[in-house]
Amino acid sequence: MKRSSLLFASLALLFGLAGCGSRSIGNKIDDQFIAPQVESNIAAAHADLTSPTSHIVVTSYNGVVLLAGQTPRSELKALAEQATRRVQGVNKVHNELQILQPTSLLARSNDSLLTTKIKAQMVADATVPGSRIKVITENGIVYLLGIVTRQEADQATRLVQSVSGVQKIVRLFQYSN
């Protein structure tokens, strides 16, 4: 009896949360599978893409994939993008890989702190739909993905601009208006 109650409560929560965003449950599930498949394809494309000479962050939101991070050669950047495009469910690829040596652990820690500060401010600001915006920070560059109105995108951008330590903002939104 307890097990079925727990299952029912979990399903109710899942469907309730699904209604909070503009993506369907299917899209959310697809995104959960796209990123690992992209990572696998990138690893198979060239050994240097997973070696210590590269640092690649893969994020998927509504079938839009962001490749961020660093790789030492432009041909590796192109290979990563090609590998990403071969994954079923990928609608668009934003290849933001930089041709650089990978960032240090300290830089990655700073990026995590920046993301945390931005998300906390989004939660506190009722004009920014933080639950519909994915924030990824890499090497001080903040990438914003989500399905929002242009006004919400502008408000989110203003909020991110106010956070100390942000080097650049890249808006990768899909607009609902």
TrEMBL record:
It comes from the Bacteria. Keywords: Signal. Gene3D superfamilies: 3.30.1340.30. The keyword Chloroplast does not apply. Residues 30-101, 110-177 form the BON domain. Residues 1-18 form the signal peptide. Pfam families: BON. PANTHER family: BON DOMAIN-CONTAINING PROTEIN, OUTER MEMBRANE LIPOPROTEIN DOLP. This is BON domain-containing protein. It comes from Pseudomonas zhanjiangensis.
